[in-house]
Amino acid sequence: MTSIRRPHLALCAALILCACGGDDEATTSDSTTAGSDDSSTTMSSTSDPTNVTTSTTDPTGEPTTAGTTGSESDSDPTVATTDPPPECGDGVVDGDEECDDGNDDNTDECLDSCVAASCGDGEVWAGNEACDDGNDDNTDECLDSCVAASCGDGEVWAGNEECDLGEMNGDDQACTSMCVAASCGDGLVGPGEGCDDGNDVPDDECTNECALPSCGDGILHVGEECDDGNGDNTDECLDSCTLAICGDGEVYMGVEECDEMGLDAPMCDADCSAALCGDDYLNMAAGEECDDGNLDEADDCTAMCLDATCADTIQNQDETDQDCGGMTCDPCAVDQGCLVNEDCETGYCDPNMVCANIPEIVISALTGAHNGDLGGLAGADALCASEAQANGVSGTWIALLATDSRPWPGIFQNPINTTVPVNNILGQTMFNNWAAIFVDDQHPNPIYAFNGVEVEEGNGNPDWADADGWTGADPSGIAAANNTCSDWTSSAGNGRNTEVDAQSLLIQETHACTYMAAVMCVRLTP
Fold it and tell me: d(Cα 275, Cα 285) in Å, to the nearest integer?
């Protein structure tokens, strides 16, 4: 057994100091021989710690080289070294090793291949990785980030998930919180859906297309009268889902001719029929003033649906000629048609039913004497008309008595009538015309009562006292002030009168209204 001498210990200490980079005292020591002749250690005088030769003495007593460090030129290849070669797993990081923990546990930070643990190496690094399948396929159970696949990670796990949008998952998104693709009927309101009730009932609050009920979807919902699924407003169902009716403003083809919201319009009646004159419906918006259901021009409504007027150039209403006669229009002119005297301007409708000038003015008298109370002009006129009729004398008669409202010059409204002769009822001329009465009051022929008796004292019944006759007029035919027996309504006061038998109409005499005198009458029309 080789004995290790103590000088070797000193050498080891020196080597340690050299290797550790000791101070100058350790590196500048001179080469020294220590111990006995059997073993020795020699150090170079240089400071290179690698130039060290360790000698030992074999049993024969000859020195041998136990180990030499230094330059390659100084080593002997036949002499074996004492350090083993580096290898993975020796616990020492050598060469290209990233790590060497001296064990074969691949779940720690250093693999048994002396490579640092990392995601994708196929080994699960305990405490750092949930999984590691060694691939970058993110559709399997382990992501390339070494995280276990799960809903919400943004990767679609094949065979387990239909979709995965990560943070965009949601029950109102295209991908639900369960990583199932949103679809109509899943009970969740997803993108593009107005509703989703999860059933297949088409006419409830959500259609089978996941749309809220709406007019025009072709499904009849509560509150809708109809729903034909189109926007055609000329059929029986409007796009408002109400049934077509007259007045909705839309023309129902084949049923309505027009529709103006139930109102009359120039071309449309309120009942949605075309506005036509003669349809017995008054449409004032169409310019109609009347519509009696016919086109007869002779009635009160013309064929143009205009009210008959006295200026429409049509003989209608009760007119006796075009725009004249009857109870509505003005009297007709001479030579126009008539039925009665009142239809004519002249006041005379001749036997041929044509308006004509009166042939004469006739003056007559009541058959008896009267005081001044005659019941006013109306009462006196009635007496004249009654006696004329009773005696078969035709024509329109009024009392020849003046009042403020009936001066003698204005008795005849039509001036033409004042140009004809003034005669007695026997046809004898008294004056050439009406105006002559107020110029030359004398007349050549007497006045006769309706019964043909001459108005003369002693003839009347009762007797015409002194053959006087009431006039109430001054010489011009105007009412004499305070001399009309209160407009012939009273027997009190005074009244103007004339001497009838003197054949003068305007002699200015005055009598008390109690006086009994003749009452003269004048015929306005035959």
Answer: 9
Of 483, 482, 487, residue with least CA distance to 498: 483
Q: Which residues pair with 423 in a beta bridge?
A: 362, 429
Query: 490 near 373, Cβ under 8 Å?
Result: yes
Angle at the Cα of 481 from the Cα atoms of 479 and 482, rounded to 5 degrees: 115
pLDDT digits (tens, 9 = 90+) for 326-381: 999 999 999 999 999 899 988 889 999 999 988 999 999 999 999 999 999 999 99
Characterize the bridge pairing of strands 468-470 and 494-499.
antiparallel
CA distance 479 to 500: 18
* pLDDT tens-digit map of 453-501: 999 988 888 899 889 999 999 999 999 999 999 999 999 999 999 999 9
User: How far apart are alpha carbons 220 and 214 in whole angstroms?
Assistant: 9
Instruction: Name residue, tokens 């035959």.
Output: 526
User: What are 197's two structure tokens?
Assistant: 């009730």
Backbone angles phi, psi at 525, to 5 degrees: -140, 155
Dist. CA 458–CA 449, nearest whole Å: 13
For Cα atoms 65, 68, 69, give the angle at the middle one, nearest 5 degrees: 175
Q: 3-class DSSP state for residue 384? A: helix
CA-wise closest residue to 382 among 231, 510, 226, 521: 521
> pTM score, two decimals?
0.46
The phi, psi pair for 415, rounded to 5°, reads -60, -25
Pairwise CA distance, residues 482 & 505, whole Å: 19
In terms of phi and psi (left: phi > 0; alpha: psi -120 to 50; beta: otherwise), the region of 48 is beta
Pairing verdict, β 361-365 and 422-424: parallel
Nearest CA to 48 out of 77, 69, 79, 33 is that of 69
**Assign residue 523 a region: left if phi > 0, alpha if psi is -120 to 50, beta otherwise?**
beta
Torsion angle in degrees (nearest 10) through CA of 308, 313, 315, 321: 130
CA atoms within a 13 Å half-sphere pointing along the CA-CB vector of 169: 20
Rounded CA separation 201/219 (Å) = 11
Maximum Cα–Cα distance across the chain: 225
